[in-house]
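Dear support,

Our group has been running a series of protein-ligand predictions, and this particular one with 5CA is the one our PI (initials K.S.) wants archived with full inputs and outputs. We had some confusion internally about which version of the output was final, so please treat the block below as the authoritative record. The input we submitted was:
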Amino acid sequence: MHAWPASEVPALPGKGRDLRIHDTATGGRVTLDPGPVARIYVCGITPYDATHIGHAATYNAFDLVQRVWLDTKRQVHYVQNVTDVDDPLLERAVRDGIDWTGLAERETALFREDMTALRILPPQQYIGAVEAIPGIVPIVERLRDMGAAYELDGDIYFSVEADKNFGEVSHYDAELMRRLSAERGGDPERPGKKNPVDPMLWMAAREGEPSWDGASLGPGRPGWHIECVAIALDHLGMGFDVQGGGSDLIFPHHEMGAAHAHALTGEHPFAKAYVHAGMVALHGQKMSKSKGNLVFVSALRRDGVDPAAIRLALLAHHYRADWEWTDDVLQEAAERLGRWRAAVSRPDGPSADALVEEVRDALCEDLDTPKALAAVDRWAERQRAGGGTDEGAPGLVSRTVDALMGVAL
Ligand code: 5CA
Ligand code: ZN
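Confirmed final output from the archive:
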C-alpha cells in the first residue's frame, strides 16, 4: 500500500538529545539508544470508520518520537500496518450492505488525507494485512510445527505457554487478561483451548467471509496479532526500538505480538520499548468506533477548522494522559495558534536560541508537549510585549514548532 506525502521537516541549528520515554514493559522511563537508523513500528487503523481524535492523538504521539529522532540527525525506519481484514471491518460492511474491500479502501484513503493535513510524517512501509498474508502463512506453519500452536476445529491457536516471557509487556494478572481478551477480539469462553486467552493465529474459512490460501493450514484468514508480528519482522527484524499504539493495545495485542515473536525466533525482545498513548474520551467515555461517540478529523476539517489547531489541541495534552475532547479544548488551541502566528509574523523579536533548547529538552523527556507549548507561549508573550530585535527569531520559532511538533505557523 502507499502511505501519504511527507511534509518538509526544517533543519534546526545544533542537534537534539536522545529520547527518554516511558516503557510499559519496565514501567519506567528508558533512554533509547537507537543506532544510526532508529526503528519503530506503530499499529495502524482498522479502516471501518473515519479517523477520530483518539486515533489522531496516538499517531501524533509517535510522530513526535520520529521528529525527536530526526532532530538527533538519525534516520528513522517507520513501519505501520492497516488491519484491512478483521471481524469489526467485516461486520460493518455487512451492516451497511457494502463490499468490505471498498469500505477499507475508502476509510484508508480518508486516513491518509487526515494524516497529511495534520502533518504527521508517513511510515516508509505502509502494509495491509491482506498483502501480508503470504508472509503470515509460513510463520503460522512454523509456530505449529515447533509446538507453539495447536489446532481446534480447523482454527490454529497460539499457546501462550510457548513464551517464557509471556506477561512481561502488560504485567496483568490472569483474571484481567481474561476479561480484556473477551472485550478485545479474543474468545476466552471457547471450549477446548489450552489457556482461555490463547489467541487465534489462523481462522479457518467461514461461510460468507473472505478467505485466502493457507497452504498446509487450509483456507482461512490471519489472526490480528500475528499480522503485526509478520509485518514488523519482515521489515524491521527483532529488537527494533519502539512498538507503539494506544493503551488499549497493551493487552492482548502487544503482549501477544511479543509472545509470538519470541516463540518464533527464540530471540528476546521483540521491541526494546513498548510505548502507549492514553485514551481520548468524548462525553466521559473512551472515543471508540464501536460506541460511536466520535469526533472525526475529517469532519472538523470540513467545518473549516485549521488542522494546525487540531494538532495544537492534541499537543496540549501529555501523550500518556487520558483526556477528554471538548469544544473548549479546540477553542483554546485555535486561540494559541492565533497568538503564535501573530508573534512570528513580525519582522524581529526576542532571541529564540534558548527556546529551541527548551522545546528539545521538553520533548526528549517523555514527549512533554505541555511543557514545550508553555515555552513557546512565553516567547510569544515576550514578543507581544515588544521585547527584542533579533531578526532571525520569528523564523527560528516557526521552524522549531514545525520540525519538532509538526505545527505550520
Ligand atoms: N488495527 C489495530 C491495531 S493493529 C487497531 O487497534 N486499530 S484501531 O483503528 O482500533 O486503532 C488505531 C490506533 O488508535 C490504536 O493505536 C489505538 O490504540 C488508537 N486509539 C483508538 N481509540 C483511541 C482513543 N479513544 N484514544 C487514543 N487512541 C485511540
Ligand atoms: Zn497492531
